[in-house]
User: What shape does this take?
Amino acid sequence: MLDQLKMPARNYLNNGHGLASWLLTKDHKRIAIMYLISISVMFFLGGLFAVGIRLELATPAGDFVQAGTYNKFFTAHGVIMVFFFLIPSIPAVLGNFLIPPMIGAKDLAFPRINLISLYIYWIGGVFTLYAMLSGGVDTGWTFYTPYSATGSNSNVVPVALGIFIAGFSSILTGLNFIVTIHRMRAPGMTWFRLPLFVWAHYATSLVQVLGTPVIAITIVMLAVERGLGFGIFDPSRGGDPVLFQHLFWFYSHPAVYIMILPALGVQSELISTFSRKTIFGYSFVAFSSVAIAVFGFIVWAHHMFVSGISTYAAMVFSFLSFSVAIPSALKVFNWAATLYKGAISFETPMLYAYGFMGLFTIGGLTGLFLATLGMDIHLHDTYFVVAHFHYIMVGGAIMGYLGGLHFWWPKITGRMYSEFFSRIAAILVFVGFNLTFFPQFVVGYLGMPRRYHSYPDEMQVLNVLSSAGASVLGLGYLLPAIYLVWSLKKGEVAGPNPWGASGLEWQTQSPPLTENFVEVPIVDREPYEYEHVAAKEKHLV
Amino acid sequence: MKIFGIPIFPEQASTFAADVDALYFFVLATCAFFAIGVAVAVIYFGIRYHKKHDGEIGARIEGSLPLELLWSVIPTIIAMVMFGWGASVFYHLRRPPAEAMHIYAVGKQWMWKFQHLEGQREINELHIPAGRPIKITISSEDVLHSLFFPAFRTKMDAIPGRYTELWFEAQTPGEYHIFCTEYCGTNHSGMIGTVKVLEPAQYQAWLQGGSMEGTLAQRGAKLFNDLACSTCHLDTGQGRGPSLKDILGKTVDLQDGSSAIVDEGYLRESILNSQAKIVKGFQPLMPTFQGLISEENLVALIEHLKSLSPNATTAAAPATGAAAATPQPAAAAVEKK
Amino acid sequence: MSNVAAHADDRGHAHAHHPALQHHFDTMAQQKEAAVVGMWVFLLTEILFFGGLFAAYMVYRIWYFDAFAEASRSLSLFWGGLNTAVLIGSSLTMAMAVRCAQTNKRTATVNWLILTMILGAVFLGVKVIEYADKFEHHHVPGYNFQWAAAHEAPAAGEHAVAASEGAAAAEGHRELSLTPAQLQLTTQIYFSLYFTMTGLHALHMIIGIGIMLVITRMAYKGKFDQEYYTPVEMAGLYWHFVDIVWIFLFPLLYLVERHV
Assistant: This one.
């Protein structure tokens, strides 16, 4: 056992030193690390704006910042979190790092395009951040016309172009994953031997490739309208402002699935690994990811039930929206069934997985409230909606991201983090999250509209609870930043497979070699077979 | 509903409130059942099947088709119940009764302006009688807004260049919030107001009081003269423009051979964009009033024109949000040859 | 499972590596398949990119059909038709270039590529002429936009109606229901879409020519042979795609109601 617990002499981290060896690398793992650092910076920046929002809302009067500043805060929070943190989070970091070793490939199909997509992300990020710091933008992340086209006098075009640029990063990542999954699988790695993480990323990539170009062209239309004075959405020139909403949500609803689907994939890996049991209903879980991605494209107008669309169109879109609930419910039931007769242990990643299960269930079920037509009229654009999508995006996507990061951290760095602090952080995140966002459901049904700088006095107590929760949540997010960095130097050496997991990525050393495996593995068994784990481990070391 | 003096549930002040809340509690109970069920199951499994020694692995259970079908079909059925119930409440919400009292609302950065047919004009305040269905026709002078009455459980966007509408019947006298829920710029959160539901008698008293400048239609009639509409649109039909008497709800033949039904949308378009649909036999002489007439004056003018057709049924007015939401040049109303 | 067999077989026959084989692929065949799948996925993205514009076009064409028909008549059928012919011709020369690369004909590949670029440049040159014409007539949307159909002088009131009716009769198309004020408003939407759509198309052409410059240089240096000509083939796919977009743009923008 002792010789196993040494850092491998050769690995992707020490294969080349100096800044150039990172900035010019084509190794998917190094690119993933650079993404990890970039999105972490973005996450804390976006979080900073959230702090501003919660401080303002601690009192009913608009007394912390001025209304214009507040509007720029929530716009910056939304734009940064959605386009520069959540969309790239799991795919560009964990997906990038893990898909090649999971399917037994040396790298993604197009390593150079992978690096280019990182640079595009950086360019888009710098563009957006510069535009935000040099005056900001106050339209909300949804950029609804005609306010964004003619009403606002803030930096709409530069921020929109930043998002436009970052969109290509997302498209290229998705394209790379699709080709890699199609053409780079190791011998014996059939479609139904793919880890569910890979299935989830395949579905995500479809959405990225098919949805992102639509927001890109919508942004182009907005930019020519605002910048060059073209008339496309402007009602005073015969244009239709609601057309913008159709085009915007045609991307932005599926974009929610870009954020949550990879987390669903992480969840499947965690549940199986920490109950040491094959996933229940593999093919149902796999295809439900694809079903969610496909249904995601036909429900966009449920964001527009009060935007003046016809009564019957609203009914059709309500009906279709319920269809997304079925594959989502299926996943939750299958995870629960996987736990039955397992050998369950509660290491940190499993705590996140349990937390995810609760928060994703609440987030998904509250989606039913909003899909129900008669109720959505009341709930639309209130804090109920805010709470709902934070349960999906923060409770779902970020819990999944943190769970995955803790799960694969020993693979990525070769070292373990402090189990004690990581469990405390997981609990703080769960408690803080619920304290922050559960009151928002209540205040939303009471009628508090979103994007409000000040609000009626009787809603203060619930908002104070929410602000208090946010401080706990913030602490829960800060802790991992500290102990994970600490583990880089001081952490225990992890060994190739510290969790006794079954995936192909655990059969190579930690951290892996530059080309992942010494020789191309040949896959001769089904996924999630824990009977073989111990034997395989010995064989590889 | 309050807990420790903190309101946690909005007041039920309209006939919809009970309908929407019943739906809410049904969905809430169903969701709570599933959420608690899943939570209990995973926590129980977590304890019951906790790993006892190193190297232990779980039982090999690959799945079960009957179970998968069971937990796909049952949620589907429940979802369909929610859909059906929700859709029926929604349908009701979108169908104002014919006898509804009519009020106009205009959203403008950052205020709500309301106009009663009787002539009263209010800003960020709306007086209405209890126990009478009220239909509000909404428009916007600048960007998107959304008129929201939480206590009545209804809202509708205000879209520049279009009319949208909502209706409700307030039941309980009192004062309730009006919010703007569609983000509309810097002072979005200042675009709020109070709806004052009065007993019918009080409402009548309120209508009598205050400065009177005539009913909405009377104000429109004054505008009709001031804007020189009356010099061409003679009731005799001998003027340079068509007579506007008794036209509401009628079908008129247009210059290009198509025809149009005269409703609020048509009148609005013909004032703002007078060249769009020229009635057969007339010259396109009328100037366009786009940008020259405010939304408030526009509704006054339209109300005046409607008053010239005392026998028209209310069916001529756009019956639904859908019809009101027809794009500004109302292509739908024109049938191409 | 057939996948496994294919891989094993390829490895069995693995001999001297082709210089263009990248380290993370096993065989040239795998590398090429990856490129082809990747290119098709990219083109799928491109279809949706233009799809947003086509959706907007569809909505406004239904609403403002007459304005679209009228504005469309102000475009030159000659230049548009010429450009369509030029672009279809360039697709042919591109296909020839791919074929020559595939059959190891270095000089012919280079020549066909150069010819394709020339045709592409001709297309862009014609587009410049058309844009300049639109600019002169104040048909570029924005604050200087001024609607006046190319074949009639701007007029007002009754004269305009008479004039447009006369012109309509002369051209054989049906009577117009629109007046100058209305055309001024709604033709601008047509031209906004016209410039966005053709502008983005032209941008794709420019990028295509840029890619071809690189590939021509590679071909000239003898980088390609029958085993490795993927870049030429991919550039070909891209070029054909740009061509097909134009095949849709031409009737949608130039031929709205020009059946005579």
Remarks:
- Confidence is low (pLDDT under 50) at residues 1-14, 150-174 of chain C.
- Chain C has one domain: 33-254.
